[in-house]
């Protein structure tokens, strides 16, 4: 069953007659809202006008560029205008110029699309939200008999809900051109002339020639005249071209050209006048010069049905009209004043067209635009058919009836209800009513169906309410956007296919922010996906309003957005900067809570110093570093260092970097700051890390000493000077005595001298460097013991009174296991350490005596702990006795 | 001997998940370069890597050869450039752990290999060394932050805290002290805000978290450790939770690498003990073991079968461990029970108590003169400086001179480092405390100055150890001998002479649930603006979770501190979890500050 053209829209105010559908293909983008765009390439300056689907003018602008050969809408609702010279201009919905790119200038005769047949630019279908399906378009240019160019229409695959941007792919040719798209593969273009195989990256707008591929249609086909019609078909994700020349059909792909014959084609065909591929790319329809229509699969393997309409005049347009899962396949053919729907039936349905009309095939029907109307032709959905068929006894129909009777307070309501319940079909009845409501366009009808459903639900125990609730919500949304002020006349199936996210995007594109927000709030979408996102879009639009002052815009945005989660002020600021409003951008950035986010934009806007302080605030050292390097290149060295000076955190970071990578810079940094202390340290480090020659090292030390003086660090300066002296001396020692002296500490130098028997020199050195006595004694003691020069040691011990006592002598001798020598010194140990010394040499008995004599408890315990075995038994007793005695006292 | 926890002490969370996460991420990174590959590992990363994924796991993922990289910088570039010269083409991947810095890319770019290598980050920042100890294995943190004022690692730290709170959080109560603690905390909170955590609905497991900067308490870290685990660390150096026992310990000719953690039953019982108890404990244990072995005598066949199949293995294992630890003890005794060590400890205690300063100073001087150990001498000097609020100018000069004469002039830089870090300073005549303070507060009120870390380079941080010690009663007054077998307070970790300052602060704050009443201490610590408390309003935290406490040491913690807090936990029914940038000790701190010739 087919529904006649259904007038959907408020009477549109299209422009006057004669302007429509003449030379230019005037069309609308499909499922969503359909802005009409038309253009008059008349005399001097054509006007480009854009309308909404309900005929509300959206934009009108004077066409100042070259002659346009074709127009089309992309899935992102951008208007692509193809010029003769291959340049494509992209406009927004509101006539705002976005960008342009070139498909390459056509070197062949006539340029791009010259002599293009009417309507050969089939519009890209922005219907499928996920762009699984391809969009396609094409050019055909007769003029020479060589068919050579295939233009690819790329669909960029974005798995997001936002509509993807179809992209043009093109290449050069001498002859005919053709745009086409393959669903998933990158677009490919071939030419006979240059035979370049080119993937085309739309975003970057580059054309890469991958290789050469010699391939000419003219020879293989022997094309004498222009093809009468052609289209692109897709099979297994590969795009082909189906081409009709006279009675023959050819299928072209990138490598071959083969003649094909549709199965079951009626004889007597001498030419194909039209061909149409269904929205799903599954079906193909051919219109022949005998008025015969062949319908089959796009693979040309199977015929579905045929129809003979007996009209030999070439139709103006032929499109498929079917629902995705429906068995009712039908093709709509349009002539000047006649519209015919043909399908798998002997009869056709005919309509009269009052005005010039243009057909747009869509997911579940065909839109028919004329100067004053916008209608939608579609198959009646099953649920609606069941309910509204005359004398229908379907459960849904009965339920609707029952509800009507109930409202009239008639007992018939009960009868109908019983009838349904007896068959146990009440759930189906409710479901049918809900479904049918979805497909209704008139709120009254929707309401009565939903009321019936709700009525039926009351008699059901466990009917899940969500389908009913969801339908009510969906219908409210749909009714809202179908309003002619909005002008997005979506059908229920289209809406479902599109998803709410895409619908919101489209509302945003139309700058219908309040409605979008209301929908979000109504559907209770999460803020981040819903309201915040829309507010952010609004703010981005707001910053483009050049007539409002920066303060007002910033304030307005902040008032609306506040601290809404998920809104990135830096993104909005970036947009403001993109519009050339740097001051506004900075003001907006102030609202950005995450300072890290502010930095990249600030850098871009050349507010590096501000960026630096923000980066520091963020605590992210990497960010600080990024800014630092930026600053380093941007400023001269002095300014750079000055900036650092005020930012200690950045300074220490940079210092760390310099320490590892750029030592010289580090020095400059210290110099700049007059940091003489650090400068001194720097040179000290250099003196043993960087310099190898002794002169260099001394020089470095001298610089260091100077710096230390400047830093008023006398101690360090003196120490450094001592080191210089020592270095020189060590050098001399090496020259005179051989061996290694360099880099030894003063202590070690003296030790080495003693060990090599240079006592005189050692003493001299000790005097020169004022080594304290204590150290010298320790040093000498250790060195002589190491040499086991006991004689010298004894002499030394007697040279004068030891400043370190004599216990160390005992210890060191014992360390070398020389008990004999140790005993010598033990006797000289002072009284307070005597016990220790005696114990060290193993004279427990004498130690005990001394301890007892001292009456020192601790010493006695110490001796006691050294008493071992039988030999010391007597001593132990002695101590115990002494202790007892002491305690008595 | 090892004290059991109170029965109501909360259970520790299972941190092995962290290991699994790190391993999975590493494997993922390895698999991104399919086929055979060689792996170059920086030496510092070897041990942590081994704890995460051993060689067999690496082999499973087609790692062919492993190389240890000794000298840090620019290895990858020289490798790549060498290959380029030789005309070889290979794929290169540089994995940065725990974080890739922008500067890394810069260096690669400068070396001209940026385009040849792919860079990745192995966000491996938390290594569970033990059931209650997480380490970031970032020993460089201490020097980088506390000396160079480099804040790079703060981000890493915040990320690690964030990871912990996503896995084990939320943490309703937070306390902290120190500039670094404050900054890390703020950064961490910002991360939480940005990523609306799923932790919101969860019940907190770990009720309290405490962040503490190392520079709040240098004293504790500078003391010689006398608790077994600390002593093992001081003597043999525990590296990444395991230690290499040399031949003198294993009583064979081989060294042995031993994991030291709670799984080692013997170690677990003695790790927190004062060393004087350890030996007697071990011999008791040995006797018990022998008794268990001896039970065999009277067994019939069936019992014997049981014994062999069930107990013998455990006994043998215990036997092995026991002999190892006895060996370690002997080795430590040999080194430490000498006169020298006792004198050293005596001096340390005198410094802590503030007695006989003159004597201690000359002890230190002698220590330097005799070239006993450069690190030890330095440590004693620092201890003297901090406890005495800086050295008097005369000592400052003479000790430095002696040190330079003993160990070489490059230590001029070491002293400059120590001064900058506030570890070894000079008492400035006339520069009264209040003047310093007013300077500090002036700087801190300025918002930007809150971030200044270089502040302490211009005004050396002053310690008021003596006053703090009095306020917090750090030196316990004991009548008679302190019984180390039955410790009464945390001072036992330092033979009863000193309660670790860091641990005392933590104890006090937890008791008061905030910093109230500690104003004076905080002021004396020069942290007036840097102590914070953040308690969640609606306190869903159960009393059990409140007793599970995460303590974060920024700049490292010592085993003594861990032992002290474990003791505190047992006393009060808390369980502590430790998160540290690295386990440290006095020697490591000093080495980090030292300048040595390359």
Automatic annotation (TrEMBL), chain A:
GO terms for cellular component: CORVET complex; early endosome; HOPS complex; late endosome membrane; lysosomal membrane. The keyword Manganese does not apply. It is found in: Late endosome membrane; Lysosome membrane. The keyword Hydrolase does not apply. It is a peripheral membrane protein. Residues 567-885 form the Vps16 C-terminal domain. Residues 399-426 form a coiled coil. Belongs to the VPS16 family. Core component of at least two putative endosomal tethering complexes, the homotypic fusion and vacuole protein sorting (HOPS) complex and the class C core vacuole/endosome tethering (CORVET) complex. Their common core is composed of the class C Vps proteins VPS11, VPS16, VPS18 and VPS33A, which in HOPS further associates with VPS39 and VPS41 and in CORVET with VPS8 and TGFBRAP1. Interacts with RAB5C. Interacts with STX17, MON1B. Associates with adapter protein complex 3 (AP-3) and clathrin:AP-3 complexes. Plays a role in vesicle-mediated protein trafficking to lysosomal compartments including the endocytic membrane transport and autophagic pathways. Believed to act as a core component of the putative HOPS and CORVET endosomal tethering complexes. This is Vacuolar protein sorting-associated protein 16 homolog. It comes from Capra hircus (Goat).
From TrEMBL, chain B:
Gene3D superfamilies: 1.25.40.850, 3.40.50.1910, 3.40.50.2060, Syntaxin Binding Protein 1, Chain A, domain 2. InterPro entries: Sec-1-like_dom1 (IPR043154), Sec-1-like_dom3a (IPR043127), Sec1-like (IPR001619), Sec1-like_dom2 (IPR027482), Sec1-like_sf (IPR036045), VPS33_dom3b (IPR043155). GO terms for biological process: protein transport; vesicle-mediated transport. Keywords: Protein transport, Transport. It is a peripheral membrane protein. Its main location: cytoplasm. Belongs to the STXBP/unc-18/SEC1 family. This is VPS33B late endosome and lysosome associated. It comes from Capra hircus (Goat). The lineage of its organism: Eukaryota, Metazoa, Chordata, Craniata, Vertebrata.
